[in-house]
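Technical note accompanying the year-one report. For the benefit of new consortium partners, we illustrate the data format agreed upon in the data management plan: each record pairs a sequence with a structure-token string. No post-processing was applied to the example shown here.
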Amino acid sequence: MSRQGVYKYEPFLSEYYDLVPAYAKRADLDFYVEAARLSHGRVLELGCGTGRILIPIAAAGFDIVGLDISESMLGACKSKLQAQPPEVRERISLILGDMTAFDLEGQFGLITTPFRSFQHLISVQAQLACLNCVRRHLAPGGRFILELFQTYPRRMYDTIYMKEVEDTPEFEMPDGRRLRRTNRTKAFHRTEQFNEVEIIYYCTHPDGRTERFVQAFPFRYFFRYEVEHLLVRAGFDIIDLFGNFDKSPLTDDSPEMIFVAEKSC
């Protein structure tokens, strides 16, 4: 993992991703399906991964394009699509690409960055490159949803977060293996506003053999007014700002910062 912010997906991640309860039971799905219902035209999801949100949107009747930088994550999504009816599969297009440099045909009524995918863009240059691509692909009157976590100050400096902590207790996978997950902050970079993070998976086989896998990545943290200035600089007007997926206002205790924006006139 380089400090320039290149997020390299490890192949094992696509195998375990949909099994982790923190992902599988995340409370964002209804929010994004409703956003698709309120939009006009196709949907574009940046960082679609294994299709956790993309497939339900297509199943709800909407055409959607999913873009992701990981071949293995898109491969997992394609495998999941085999269980879907033909009419759902026909509504989905998957594209291997970079969210900072994509050029797709046509425009979209809704563009989304679910589960904080934008926070893998470390530099302002990369962030603006992504936002410029979004603006170019957003149809007149279309909406852009930018989802980020609200920064918790202690995670910017407190060395207690450098200790490995379990976030997913061990559970049995469908094939009989057992999986548990931990996480830690490897390093702080406060002047550049990102942490180096490790997500660690421990897999135990039925014969007792164990494996340890590490997904390491840089993760950028943002503050409210920084994001507002960034969106305006990229040519957007902010329509709404929520603190959670129930559309509650942003408060000091909100876990999320969910910006809804349109192209400026």
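Partners are asked to follow this layout when depositing records. Residues 124-137 form the longest helix (14 residues).
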